[in-house]
Amino acid sequence: MSTVSAPAATTTKQVPFGISSETGRLRRVIVHTPGAEMDQVDPDERLDLLFDDILFVDQASDEHQLMCALFEHVVGEQGAVLQIRELLNDVFRKEAARRDFIGQLCRAAPGRNLHVVEEDLEQLTPPELTRFVMTGQSPLTVNVPPLPNLMFTRDLAAVVGEHVVMSHAATAARARESTVIEVVLRHHEAFAEMENRLITLPEGVTFEGGDLLVADPEVVLIGHSERTSLSGAMAAAEALFEQTPTEHVLVVDLPKKRSCMHLDTVFTFVSPGECVVYPPLVSAESAGTVLHLTPGDGPDQFRTAVRRSLKETLVQLLDRSLTFIPCGGPDRLSQQREQWTDGANLFAAAPGLVVGYERNVRTFEALRERGYRTVEVRRFLDDFASADAEPDGKIAVKLEGQELSRGRGGPRCMTLPLARQAPER
């Protein structure tokens, strides 16, 4: 099968919103296929940009487009996979959106003297301004660093119920991405109904979407990680209690290091009753410290309890059994190696239909032992190309990720779901 082109994202229809689980069938998702911004990563500056390696952009783009094709098939509707580049092009046609974005950009980077060319930036065409945002390059006298991490759209925000928790990036390298998603959600016509559903956290806290998982309509997990501060997790919990059906927030304490920068690098749902976990940090017996938050008697109040077993707490709250599947299988070294290449960062496109990097061989073996049929992404697309053809049983799709995986983020990192089908009760 030949590589498909990335789906166009331009839309004026209202985009459905609503996430009440990690595994409901996908309806809408925001992605960013790697492009010209990757070619602007200077090897000597890659670590400052939070990149460990230099990607072969053409190959990374092909791999990403295959993932997008899989999502289009699962949703069964053209335009379900929204490219953030196209969304930006749309909103930059509006003068108010351009002015809003450029003003925020100038205030966020005072040391770059962008205010000197603020009026010139406003005169760029929408494609020129989008290119400037992505690559940092423009015909003007100033430039800014590129945004290679924009491919990890998960970290831009998190949809909980019918609300969106906006990110507060923990690093300067990703701060501009928060402005990108904000201008899209506030100004794009497709998101007009969302204006009063955006949750903005207080200044001074940090929060990134990879640290938030929606276990069910009332149970949310938030990682206290390298990228999400405890104050950020608490602020998010407070807002969720006030504005969504959330009744329980489990704050999971993680080591503050890059190898496990977000909760979803060590723990993801693959079906309603199954999770892939990194055993050294998350096991049936423990998960470090889990702070269980519930609403208090008044505004800005919590009830708190410390739990020692994430699994036992989830089983109790979700009222269903859970199987923890080890990333990398039973061998400790394999667990470490495959967590490093995002073996625990899987994305459920539907209940029991999960996608991960094919290089994580032992993780796929562990899934097979739990009844999953494993299939390469191209074979999956060939077998189910017909709109009437539906996969039967549990399937783990192997995504080609030799280049994508070098960016240190898996399929869940590369997806910002906006809507899923609600789970059956």
Describe the structure.
This protein has 425 residues and is of the alpha/beta class. The chain has one domain: 5-stranded Propeller (L-arginine/glycine Amidinotransferase, Chain A), CATH 3.75.10. Helices cover 28% and strands 20% of the residues. Helix 11 links the parallel strand 16 (373-376) and strand 17 (395-399). Helix 2 (84-91) packs across helix 5 and helix 3 (95-108) runs antiparallel to helix 6 (175-187). The longest helix has 19 residues, at 57-75. It is globular, with a radius of gyration of 21 Å. Residues 1-9 have low confidence and may be disordered.
Structure summary:
With 425 residues, the protein is α/β, with parallel strands linked by helices. It has eleven helices and 18 strands. The chain is 28% helix and 20% strand.
Structure class: alpha/beta
Q: Major sheet: order of its strands?
A: 6-7-8-11-12
| Spans of at least 5 consecutive residues with low confidence | 1-9
What is the gyration radius calculated from CA atoms?
Answer: 21 Å
Amount of helix? 25-40%
| Overall average pLDDT | 90
Q: Secondary-structure element order, as H and E?
A: EHEHHHHEEHEEEHEEEEEHEHEEHEHEE
CATH first level: Alpha Beta
Q: Report the principal-axis shape.
A: globular
Largest beta-sheet details: 5 strands, mixed
Count of individual beta strands: 18
CATH homologous superfamily assignment = L-arginine/glycine Amidinotransferase, Chain A
- Spatial gap, N to C terminus: 38 Å
- At CATH's second level, what is the architecture? 5-stranded Propeller
How much of the residues is beta strand, in percent?
15-25%
